[in-house]
Write a structure and sequence with these properties.
The structure holds two protein chains of two kinds.
Chain A: E1 16-25, E2 28-38, E3 43-47, H1 54-61, E4 69-74, H2 79-82, E5 90-93, H3 105-115, H4 120-133, H5 149-160, E6 167-171, H6 179-196, E7 199-204, E8 215-220, E9 223-229, H7 230-237, H8 242-250
Parallel strand pairs in A: 3-7, 3-8, 5-6, 6-7
Antiparallel strand pairs in A: 1-2, 1-4, 8-9
Chain B: H1 3-23, H2 25-49, H3 64-94, H4 96-101, H5 107-135, H6 144-169, H7 176-189, H8 197-203, H9 205-212, H10 215-227, H11 233-254, H12 260-265
Helix pairs in contact in B: 1-5, 2-3, 2-5, 3-5, 3-6, 3-7, 3-10, 5-6, 6-10, 6-11, 8-9, 10-11
Classes of the chains: A alpha/beta, B mainly alpha.
Chain lengths: 260, 273
């Protein structure tokens, strides 16, 4: 039986709380007592090399896997206790593309809007606004199969914000995209966070996607090795820039996976 | 989440499946051609070689093509159930299953909506086949076309639930063809779809028992009796019972806390850790 929504949350309370979460694949520990928060209106960059545990963490937050130890709360509700209901305020862009290639952009977005319970008229209005903001409105009638990688990503971002989420999870959404597209997406997400007070957790291994004022989490081998505002984390390590700080923090662990 | 949300989500899932079905014309034609080959070629040959005695629900001698029609309808639904399951494996591989599973709706509801969408598609295929079969001389009681609908919904759900359960155990799309052959053909041939059970018993006792315990047999009989405005209670009980088992196992398999998906990936610290 699912519970009713908690009340009395303030606008400054974290939209995501992860506390002491561990996870194992057989005998291999993928996450070690991971704890952090994501706040409304802030972009929190989750930086880590390949295999650091970013995607596992996302799978736990989105309830694709159940978190057996520790606690995860989305806007005060734990998916383990509240079930799927806890995922209401959540928008997600997965690392793997998730659009239906044989449907048009509009059909994909309408399908998602229906899953989120949006009325058709409202869904169409929000769809137009979201696609317009991402310069994709004129492609609305095209099949996704006909779009390039960058445009597909934009559609996925438009889809993820259609239901006005309070927490947006982005799992390396710009992988494989050209620099202008990446820049546009990074700018748009930061604007969204500021304007709509969305808390964003952005998994990446690209330093130039992180702004100095963003919160930063550095994940290495399943452990959080640094957390705080990006400029503070860089200053604390004594490095010249984020790239240098990162290398110091992970001890040159798998630096070849990281790109400037 | 409220009733309106559930209704919109349900409609959305059904609408998407119908859109996909309409776009896959080859799938529609394959679904029609397969049973038509059985009806036109196989049944025509066997019509002369095989007489069907008067057995319930028939009250007179019938031709062989009339006899195998319920079995062919069940075959259409079985193929459709496997196709839906293939579509779920495809969605999982392509990632779109994640969109479904991360919505704030219970997993059982999402799976049921997918199941109903598959049933609607299968009914469309079944009645198109019946229309074509009518022009080839297969005439069933006129009211039977209506009274068979509840039976066809149940059997469609049965095969959809079986497909859903299989989809939870199949890791890769490439493995699917083998599973389909392993499931569809034995289920179809070892049943009362092509021959009545009493005839099977005359030929081979052990084969008769295999057919008797095959849920497909009872799905065929449920449809057969429904077309003649009768309820085969044993068939109804077997179909509903198997449906409950397949559905229960599917819900369990897709549950993030307990199911196969969870066990495949990981979990809490192992005892020794």
């Amino acid at each position: 039986m699912q519970k009713e929504a908690p009340t009395g949350r303030s606008a400054h309370d974290p939209v995501l709380t992860v506390k002491d979460v561990s996870y194992y694949y057989g005998p291999k520990q993928a996450l070690h007592d991971v704890s952090f928060e994501v706040y409304p209106g802030k972009v929190t960059a989750l930086l880590g090399p390949n295999g650091a545990g970013k995607t596992t963490l996302f799978s736990l937050i989105t309830r694709l896997f159940d978190a057996p130890t520790g606690r995860i709360e989305i806007c005060g509700k734990s998916p383990s206790e509240w079930g799927a209901k806890a995922l209401g305020p959540l928008g997600v862009v997965f690392q793997q593309p998730t659009l239906d290639l044989d449907l048009t952009v509009k059909q994909n977005l309408r399908y998602f809007a229906a899953l989120r319970g949006l009325p058709r008229k409202e869904a169409d209005e929000r769809m137009d606004a979201a696609l317009d903001a991402l310069d994709m409105k004129e492609r609305i009638g095209e099949r996704v199969r006909a779009l390039n990688g960058g445009h597909r990503r934009r559609v996925e971002i438009a889809r993820s914000i259609l239901h006005s989420p309070k927490l947006l999870l982005l799992d390396e959404p710009t992988v494989g995209l050209d620099v202008p597209t990446r820049t546009a997406i990074v700018r748009h997400i930061h604007e969204l966070a500021r304007k709509d007070k969305i808390g964003v957790l952005w998994a990446t291994h690209l330093f130039d996607e992180i702004e100095p004022g963003d919160d930063l989490l550095v994940l290495n081998r399943g452990r959080i090795v640094a957390r705080g505002e990006t400029k503070d984390v860089v200053a604390e390590t004594g490095a010249k820039d984020l790239g240098g700080a990162f290398q110091l923090l992970i001890g040159g662990d798998t630096g070849e996976d990281i790109a400037a | 989440m409220n009733l309106m949300h559930l209704t919109r989500a349900f409609n959305g899932i059904v609408w998407r499946e119908l859109l996909r079905f309409l776009q896959q014309r080859e799938r529609f034609f394959a679904a029609l051609v397969r049973p038509l080959i059985w009806l036109i070629i196989f049944a025509a040959g066997f019509r002369a070689a095989l007489g069907i005695a008067i057995i319930p629900p028939y009250q007179t001698y019938i031709t062989y093509d009339v006899y195998i029609t319920p079995g062919l309808l069940a075959m259409i639904q079985l193929f459709n159930g496997m196709q839906s399951s293939l579509s779920m494996v495809y969605d999982r591989e392509m990632g779109s299953m994640r969109v479904l599973l991360t919505t704030p709706l219970p997993r059982w509801f999402l799976l049921m909506a997918r199941l109903f969408a598959g049933v609607i598609v299968s009914l469309f295929q079944v009645y198109t086949f019946l229309l074509v079969a009518y022009f080839f001389g297969v005439e069933l009681p006129p009211l039977g076309y209506l009274t068979a609908i509840p039976a066809l919904i149940l059997t469609g759900m049965l095969f959809g639930a079986l497909g859903m359960l299989l989809s939870s155990t199949i890791k890769q799309l490439e493995n699917f063809a083998g599973i389909m052959n392993f499931v569809i053909f034995p289920m179809f041939f070892a049943s009362s779809a092509l021959y009545p059970l009493w005839k099977m018993k005359e030929g081979s006792l052990w084969l008769y028992y295999i057919c008797l315990y095959n849920p497909f047999t009872w799905a065929v009989e449920l449809i057969r009796f429904a077309f003649y405005l009768e309820v085969n209670w044993t068939a109804l009980a077997v179909v509903v019972g198997c449906l409950a088992v397949f559905l229960g196992l599917s819900f369990w398999a897709y549950d993030p806390s307990f199911g196969i998906q969870q066990r495949k990936v990981g979990g809490p610290a192992p005892a020794a850790a």
